[in-house]
Amino acid sequence: MMGELEIVKHLGHVMVRDKSGFYCEKCHFHWKSQPKTSCPTLPRYRNMRETPEIFQPASEMRRTYRMKPAPDQKPVAVRRGLGRGHQWTLLYDIRECVPIRRRKKRT
Ligand SMILES: [Zn+2]
Question: How high is the pLDDT of residue 99?
Fold first, then answer.
């Protein structure tokens, strides 16, 4: 049937299939053939350069900005982790983060 899109559910992805391949509505990614890795269920970025500056992993938030995710804050996106494997680095929106209180040193 022309113009009808096929929905493919695979490894947690919910993908729309068309001539150019597969597009996941959950992680906003596109493949030419079915992905072999599971869906992170959040928008993903390939690398640091692609990631908006307001989205940072908790470690980077702490180091560079002296901020941390708020207690009930949820990650907004993921980024491919460094090294092998299919681990995702969770990214938090810096605008929702809270400053880290620095303990005063007693002298
Ligand atoms: Zn997906």
Answer: 95
Tens of pLDDT along 46-101? Answer: 888 889 999 999 999 999 999 999 999 999 999 987 766 667 899 999 999 999 98
- How far is ligand 1, taken at its centre, from the CA of residue 32, in Å? 14
Ligand 1: centre distance to CA 25 (Å):
6
**60 CA to centre of ligand 1 in angstroms:** 25
My answer on whether 53 and 103 are in the same domain is yes
pTM for this model (two decimals):
0.76
Q: How far is the CA of 102 from the centre of ligand 1 (A)?
A: 39
Is the same domain home to 57 and 70?
A: yes
Distance 58 CA to ligand 1 centre (A): 23
The residue range of the domain holding 81 is 42-107
| Cβ–Cβ under 8 Å, residues 11 and 35 | yes
